[in-house]
Write a structure and sequence with these properties.
It contains 13 helices and six strands. It has about 375 residues and is of the alpha/beta class. It has one domain (about 5-365): 3-Layer(aba) Sandwich (Rossmann fold). The structure holds 2-acetamido-2-deoxy-beta-D-glucopyranose (3 copies).
């Protein structure tokens, strides 16, 4: 499923005029935003519909009741009742929400390619940092798609101008949870040596991907860490008493710690690289520890699903769903609600060191 953005030759004068108008419109849209573009990579926490284009994949959410609180109650492929975390992060940067899924821009018109000037979302539910995780669009493939888009953009605007725009753009990455699930599925009682070696591999593979993006012109990285995946309805449903599965949280914490030092050392190697790591772990853990403080009612079971804690099946059309969605931590067996994504977006964008280090996303956007 190799896809390329087909670029049509600019033959007639009226087309040139059309594109100048589109470029002006793209520039105006960018002027309203605080960054020229946002490019998004990762898994289902960031996917806004790429998987809709994957024939035969079951890692999809483009059907009800997903999207029930999205404008016009539209299921878009987001694993949420409304927006997801990257939608809110993009909106803090001045965009309406996440840019469109890359596969909705591929093989389309020049107009669609130009939309890529304001960003694109390459994330794919089910994928991980490691190419061996899942069977959807791997991180390596997502970066190849970005490279195709970058080349297309350079056919419209000068190479140096493209690099200038990319250096001011934000590259958002949210991944790692699926790698940990895959590791746990193979071995649910790993010893210290196995854990350390797995985490080292994840962190060094993350570094490899960041370097690839840097090589394509990325400079500003907004990274979202792994949430306490041992406490989501799916994992609780595996525990006889519905408790959290501690080893999954330990793996997430271990990875998040390794990611911090890996990024710190990387930023001293790569000239001009800047980053912020937003902690979905801190946000979600804070809510689980004290739901009442922020007025949430249900932090164990999913709003939409089936079976124990609504965590044994995805949010498929015949699943049951709750009405008080703003009081739930989890929308489905694995993903947070619109309300929690909004809170996480706020904490990561504007929050203190507890929620984003070494700077928050707002400071990342504002840095020259
Ligand atoms: C784009 O076109 C290529 C080659 O024609 C095809 O293999 C690919 O599936 C198409 N991608 C999409 C998203 O339609
Ligand atoms: C961890 O498990 C592996 C087998 O998977 C074994 O070879 C190794 O000796 C164990 N290490 C410790 C410290 O128990
Ligand atoms: C919902 O549909 C799936 C198949 O799509 C089926 O396996 C499941 O049993 C159904 N659940 C209920 C509660 O009807």
């Amino acid at each position: 499923m190799d896809s390329t953005v087909r670029v049509l030759p600019l033959r007639c004068r009226h087309l040139v005029l059309l594109f100048s108008a589109l470029l002006a419109a793209a520039a105006a849209a960018a002027a309203a935003a605080n960054v020229p573009a946002v490019y998004i990579f990762g898994d289902s926490t960031a996917d806004v519909g790429n998987n809709n284009y994957l024939a035969g994949s079951n890692a999809k959410a483009n059907f009800p009741h997903n999207g029930i609180d999205f404008p016009n109650s539209r299921p878009t492929g987001r694993f949420s009742n409304g927006y997801n975390g990257v939608d809110f992060l993009a909106s803090h940067m001045g965009f309406r929400r996440s840019p469109p899924p890359y596969l909705s821009l591929a093989n389309k018109t020049n107009h669609q390619v130009l939309k890529g000037l304001a960003g694109a979302n390459f994330a794919s539910g089910g994928s991980g940092i490691l190419d061996s995780t899942g069977s959807t669009i791997t991180m390596t493939k997502q970066i190849q798609y970005f490279s195709i888009l970058q080349t297309s953009i350079m056919t419209y605007i000068a190479t140096d101008r493209t690099y200038q725009l990319l250096s001011k753009s934000i590259f958002l990455i949210s991944s790692g949870g699926n790698d940990i699930f895959a590791f746990f599925t193979k071995n649910n009682t790993p010893n210290r040596t196995e854990i350390d070696s797995f985490i080292a591999t994840l962190a060094s593979t993350y570094e490899y991907h960041i370097k690839a993006l840097y090589g394509l012109g990325a400079r500003k990285f907004g990274i979202v860490d792994v949430a306490p995946i041992g406490c989501c309805p799916y994992t609780r449903s595996l525990h006889p008493a519905g408790a959290c599965i501690d080893i999954l949280n330990e793996l997430a914490l271990g990875f998040n710690t390794a990611l911090k030092s890996q990024m710190q050392s990387l930023s001293s190697q790569l000239q001009g690289m800047k980053y912020s790591i937003g902690s979905s772990y801190a946000v979600v853990w804070g809510i689980i520890r004290d739901p009442n403080a922020l007025g949430y009612k249900e932090v164990k079971s999913a709003c939409c699903g089936a079976g124990k804690l609504n965590g044994q099946s995805g949010c498929i059309p015949n699943a049951t769903y709750c009405s008080e969605r703003h009081l739930y931590l989890f929308w489905d067996l694995l993903h947070p609600t619109h309300a929690i994504s909004k809170l996480a977006g706020m904490a990561i964008y504007h929050g203190s060191q507890q929620f984003a280090t070494p700077i928050n996303f707002k400071q990342l956007v504002e840095q020259n």
